[in-house]
Amino acid sequence: MPGMIGKKIGMTSLFDENGKNLPCTVIEVGPCVVTQIKTTETDGYEAVQIAYGDKTEKNVPNALVGHFKKAGSTPKGSVVEFASYNEDLKLGDELLVSLFEEGEFVNVAGTSKGKGFQGVVKRHNFGGVGQATHGQHNRLRAPGSIGAGSDPSRVFKGMKMAGKMGNARTLIENLRVLKVDEDKNLLVVKGSIPGANNSIVLISK
Amino acid sequence: MDLLKFVNEEYVARKEFPEFGAGDTITVYYKIKEGTKERTQFFRGVVLQRRGSGPTETFTIRKISGNVGVERIFPVNLPAIEKIEINKKGKVRRARIFYQRELTGKAARIKERRM
């Protein structure tokens, strides 16, 4: 899957040719630098490693500075592998947003916003327990039963319970590309993508 | 943030309309599609509020149709809007005049502002 690294800029809305109001997300995509070509002979699998987002040299370990220097690039913040690009890429090549076309569908992966410790109603869409009135007391958003009694005498693994929510890798599939701006390295997709503004996202075809 | 502004300015076709605000009576002419035919319809009423900014700005207009109040929300940049006519400038003291919803008949009148 060929792809690129980008930064979520924010959301707005645009009108399409039929006059329909579409919610859309603006992403700054690339330019990404090819920092390593992995081949079956040397690494056991085929992939292209690309990097995005400038960093100052003093904030990057020396080993990585050398790795970027090999590709003739300045130190970068995020490094990701993708595979099966159409053209043959060489070390130090620059990938631009023109990889994507208007009208095609892309997948966007990112880290969702952290929600902290949440109960089952918010975290797993439980309905809560029973009624609020008729003597019901402090059980409104409780999970209810978590299993049978002496048989099996334990709680099954994977039982949906309260806990930390969000701040996890989330993939949104099949977002339509509405606009591609090659001068400003911008990509506009229909719909929302995971994460806060200015967070790093991966866009793949 | 600046890139978002760029997208808003580049891809949203802005329209030139006369300035209007809450309390004004306006007529909005907009195109509607019926199957393959296109025709222009208008909606005339009092502006209750203008809301939002940039490409997502909207305004709400309210009219009394028969005995029932009807409200419609238009995005300012809606491509289907052909023109907006200002029929009356109203004199009101606030930016959002939702109290109009509770008023009927004589009490619902809005004083005209002399320019």
Which terms summarize this structure?
heterodimer; A: 205 residues; mainly beta; Elongation Factor Tu (Ef-tu), domain 3; 2 domains; six-stranded antiparallel barrel; four-stranded antiparallel β-sheet; 3 helices; 12 strands; extended; B: 115 residues; SH3 type barrels; 1 helix; 43% strand; globular
Task: Please give a structural write-up.
The complex is a heterodimer of chains A (205) and B (115). Chain A is 9% helix and 40% strand. Chain A is mostly beta strands. In chain A, strands 1-2-11-10-7-12 form a 6-stranded antiparallel beta barrel. In chain A, a hairpin with a 5-residue loop joins strand 1 (3-15) and strand 2. The model of chain A has no long low-confidence stretch (mean pLDDT 88). Chain B has one domain (17-103): SH3 type barrels (Roll), CATH 2.30.30.790. In chain B, strand 3 (58-65) and strand 4 form a beta hairpin. Chain B has 1 helix and 5 strands. Chain B is mainly beta and 115 residues long. Chains A and B meet through strand 1 and strand 2 of A and helix 1 of B.
Distance between the termini of chain A: 6 Å
**First and last CA, distance of chain B:** 39 Å
Percentage of residues in strands of chain A: 35-45%
Count every beta strand of chain B, where a strand is a DSSP E run of 2 or more residues. 5
* Strand order, sheet with most strands of chain A: 1-2-11-10-7-12
Low-confidence stretches of chain A: none
Shape of chain B: globular
Mean pLDDT of chain A: 88
Physical arrangement of strands within the biggest beta sheet of chain B:
4-3-2-1-5
Major β-sheet annotation of chain A = 6 strands, antiparallel, barrel
Alpha plus pi helix count of chain B: 1
Question: Helical region count of chain A?
Answer: 3
CATH architecture heading of the largest domain in chain A: Beta Barrel
| CATH class categorisation of the largest domain in chain A | Mainly Beta
The shape of chain A, in one word, is extended
Chain pair sharing the greatest interface: A-B, 15 and 18 residues
- Major beta sheet of chain B, specifics? 5 strands, antiparallel
Order of helices and strands of chain A: EEEHEHEEEEHEEEE
The number of domains of chain B is 1
SS-based structural class of chain B? mainly beta
- Derived from helix and strand composition plus strand pairing, the structural class of chain A reads mainly beta
